[in-house]
Design goal:
RNA Cap, Translation Initiation Factor Eif4e, 178 residues, 7 helices, 4-stranded antiparallel beta sheet
Length: 178
């Protein structure tokens, strides 16, 4: 039904409105949604492409404590999602940037099109103390940027579906929901 509407979700996760995409970015994101729905219906072996993740940046000094709190909430059912944290990588070519001093924690949701679930995850993270602005990124954006899914032919499949929706420019900005 969503796909057949010719509309797209608002970029705000706190809005349930769908609208006709007018901007280049909205048209691109709508085309991704439609192509992904087509691809998963055609070949249900790829449900992982519907995953998305809340991105949490934490200072290196607070990473262990934050990670232990999050994993405790996940293990006890207070946060019904999966998560991962970046490792420390000493890269001498990196300047002293924010990304060098921070760890990235990803909290995964099973389907970025389930707006209510994405919203619920954000509210649970807020209750867990993550009150600053967080960003959400559907995994399909990562797949499109890397142009592959290791060990599968999904890359070819999604690009074929994107061509059906006249998507030629595959550049998209990092922040999907603000």
């Amino acid at each position: 039904m969503y796909k057949n509407s010719g509309k797209t979700y608002s970029r705000s996760i706190f809005s349930d409105t769908i609208h006709i995409p007018l901007t280049k970015v909205d048209k691109f994101l709508a085309a991704i949604d439609y192509a992904l729905i087509d691809a998963v219906i055609e070949d249900p072996r790829y449900p992982f492409v519907l995953f998305g993740k809340w991105l949490i940046r934490v200072d290196r000094e607070k990473a262990n404590e934050t990670w232990h709190e999050l994993t405790h909430r996940i293990e006890t059912g207070g946060l019904p999602y999966t998560a991962k944290i970046s490792t420390v990588r000493n890269n001498p070519s990196l300047r002293d940037t924010v990304s060098k001093r921070k760890h990235l924690i990803c909290i995964y949701t099973p389907n970025y099109l389930w707006r209510e679930d994405v919203r619920k995850a954000r509210l649970l993270l807020k209750k867990s103390g993550f009150t600053s602005r967080l960003y959400y990124r559907p995994d399909i954006i990562t797949i499109i940027e890397s142009r592959s899914v290791a060990g599968t032919d999904f890359r070819r499949s999604i690009f074929n579906h994107l061509r059906r929706y006249d998507v030629k420019d595959l550049e998209v900005k990092y922040r999907y929901f603000g």
